[in-house]
Specification:
With 229 residues, this protein is an alpha+beta fold. Strands 1, 2, 3, 4, 5, 6, 7, 8, 9, 10 and 11 form an 11-stranded mixed sheet that branches. A hairpin with an 8-residue loop joins strand 3 and strand 4.
């Protein structure tokens, strides 16, 4: 199941497929932690259960690059980089419509509704609201089934619940295929058109800068190649 982009004794960088949980799943559904643990156990003579530290998360329908720690020291270092905004994450997405500007920065306040597992843009003063910041640039646009679609590159500066999906929907350009935040929109075919395409961080032991890129995959992204220029 897992596609490994890099691995050493401290970290493992993988490409998560859409439809798989990035952390431990309930019941018998597959998840990335369990699959990585199986992989490590196959290569190890140690009888103890392998350590797999979750550093960041991707929504279940989102695919792309993730890094996991293989020991607690590496996990602490990588988690600190996340807290200090030193870990850089870039996404590619297809959205319905076209942003007003070809480049922009969105700064909103998001509030998570635990009952519905959704988030929404709210006023700054609402209790529990957190700042959400991202930047985007338009890579192209075109017509798909009489619907204008734009191909964007999005850089995240904060890591809020469903952040890209909520902010894009809130700014009138919802992510293609997002039935949660755009249930009446054109859904296309396949999974959500959101992919974690680039990840950079500093190696937790050597300090070396690590950079990885993954080309978006899936039926929806094939539309970008065909219609979006």
């Amino acid at each position: 199941m897992i596609s490994i982009l890099y691995e050493d004794k401290d970290i493992i960088v993988v490409e998560k497929p859409p439809g798989i949980e990035s952390q431990r799943a309930r019941g018998f559904e597959p998840d990335m932690v369990s699959e990585i643990r199986k992989h490590i156990n196959k290569l190890s003579t140690n009888s103890r259960e392998a350590y797999v530290g979750v550093i960041h998360r991707l929504d279940k329908p989102v695919g792309g690059i993730m890094v996991y720690a293989k020991n607690k020291k590496a996990a602490a270092s990588l988690s600190k980089q996340v807290s200090n905004h030193e870990m850089k994450k870039v996404y590619r997405t297809l959205v319905c419509g076209k942003p007003v500007d070809n480049f922009g920065i969105y700064v909103d306040y998001l509030w998570k509704d635990d009952k519905t597992n959704t988030s929404q843009i709210v006023e700054k003063g609402k209790e529990g609201a957190k700042e959400a910041r991202l930047s985007y640039r338009v890579l192209g646009s075109g017509q798909v089934n009489d619907q204008e679609v734009s191909y964007l590159e999005v850089a995240l500066y904060t890591g809020r619940h469903h952040q890209i999906r909520v902010q894009m929907a809130g700014h009138k350009t919802p992510v293609l295929g997002d039935r949660k935040y755009n249930p009446d929109g054109f859904s296309g075919r396949g999974n959500l058109a959101l992919w974690a395409c680039s990840l950079s961080f500093f190696h937790p032991v050597t300090g070396q800068k690590m950079e990885f890129f993954s080309q978006p995959k899936g039926q929806l992204f094939s539309l970008a190649e065909k219609y979006v220029k």
